[in-house]
Amino acid sequence: MTLRKALDMIARLRPALRAPIVLFTYANPVVRMEARSFARAAADAGVDGVLILDRTTRDQRKQAMRALREAGTGSPPLG
User: Fold this and answer.
1) Which residues lie below 8 Å from residue 54, measured CB to CB, with a gap of 6+?
2) Residues in CB range of 66: below 8 A, 6 or more apart
């Protein structure tokens, strides 16, 4: 399963789901897709939040969080 395929699947299923959708992913697919493109695609698919599970550089993390906020998708607080 690729990140793009997961987003396509979410987009197809989203209209039938009432629960929030939080996407769990690793940083590499987001970086390869480019943070803004990923954020737009996630928001368009109906993703409510994103958790990036591995360590990223501070710059990568800031770029991803900024792109997600701008696209109207967030990262849920943990802890």
Assistant:
1) 26, 27, 28
2) 35
**Identity (one letter) of the amino acid at 49?**
G
Strand partners, 51: 24
Distance CA 39, CA 35 (A): 6
21-77 pLDDT per residue, tens: 999 988 889 889 998 999 999 999 999 999 888 777 778 778 888 888 899 887 765
CA–CA separation, 27 and 11 (whole Å):
21
Q: Which two tokens stand for residue 56?
A: 């990223």
pTM of the full structure: 0.80
How far apart (Å, rounded) are the C-alpha atoms in residues 47 and 49? Answer: 6
- Asked whether the beta carbons of 50 and 21 are under 8 A apart, the reply is no
Q: Tokens 């897709």 identify what position? A: 33
